[in-house]
Amino acid sequence: MARCICLIYAPLFLILTTHSHATRDVDGTCDVRGSSVLQVTSKRGNLSMQAEDIAPFEGREKTVTLCFRLSKMKVQSLRLIPQDSWSKVLEHAKCMILSSVQSGPAELLPHPDKPEKMMSTGKITGYLLSESSLFVSDDTITLKTCGTTTPLLALEPILDMVIPNWRGKSPHKFLKYASFIRLGYMFPDKQIAPHTSWDTEVEYLNKYFEGDDVILGTENTSTYHVYVANYLAKGQLLDSAISTQVALGHLSPEESMKVFVGTLAEDKTPLKTAWKDMHCDATRSSTSDPTIDEFFFEPIGYSSNAVFDERFTTIHATPQPSSSYMSVETSAPLTKDCKRNFVNAALGMCEAGTFSMTEFALSPVFLGQGTPPVIPGFTVAKTSQWLSDNFACALHHYVRESL
């Protein structure tokens, strides 16, 4: 087990915005209260929102991923587990399912070499949650939650459901890998145990796995926290364990409200609209036919899932100015040019003052060069990366250039 903290210090960048806050309850609603009023106008009408006394919301997500060995699972595919069972697991994470989409039927396919043997579904199911998303493929669970949720507390219920006799066994017997990834919290003092600090999160994870962890970046810009327990054989590659995320901050208050407030939004399907720009090979690959689920929270906020083959793209936005945040993540492999297009498309959805691009690959060969793409109008404030035999990751933090 190894730990590494890579902190690169940079000048503090301050971008001041109008102050307003909101909290999203487990039922997907936001608690809005206060005395100051934020007025936003669009072609669809006016929105008056209480501003200064509204509680802020933690938009930055925590992501838990578990990839199982199919032969050790209780079921032949995780997608065969009923939604009610996932709902019970999610109670431990303090969130709930709002809707779901799938890239194909949850039906087992015959083995290509042994027709009498059923293999897998070869697809993925995406659950839109009250706080972000859950993605379930044949052998992998990705639980991404925001706010004050507790996804690590869902570990035991998941293991109990998938590998009933996991206790007393070495994790490498039933897992290919486990990971926990997040950006630095905006409001760490609001988090609930075991999410009160990175040290407590790592300590909790080490109760179940044998992992390495690293922190990239600087508190003045952005931090990227990554924990990985890799149980693959040396030299074994896994191209499904890939993530590229763009996390936008300091969103334009007026623009973000017009995009991510359902009563004001002129475009009710922002992910569908941005899809081709975001996925530059969308006309000739699996991304050409996604199944998309988009949802506007009341009174503000937006989430969407898109699933295609065994991959996903997901967006979550909390536009309240005091803690404005939007994340766009995909598990699809991206070329260098496609990564740049992905970033530009995310920025095209809403004007932002800063953003962080993160990259993760369980097999380092799939990370690429780990260099930040050139984005017009933005300067790279800091970039850092981590390469090891067990995983690779990179963090690139950008700030808008002065006009």
Q: Would you mind describing this structure in some detail?
A:
The structure is a single chain. With 403 residues, the protein is an alpha+beta fold. It has one domain: 4-Layer Sandwich (S-adenosylmethionine decarboxylase), CATH 3.60.90. Strands 1-12-13-11-6-10-9-8-7 form a nine-stranded mixed sheet. β2 and β3 form a beta hairpin. The longest helix is centred in the C-terminal third of the chain and has 14 residues. Keywords: Polyamine biosynthesis, Signal, Spermidine biosynthesis. InterPro entries: AdoMetDC-like, S-AdoMet_deCO2ase_core. This is Adenosylmethionine decarboxylase. GO terms for molecular function: adenosylmethionine decarboxylase activity. Belongs to the eukaryotic AdoMetDC family.
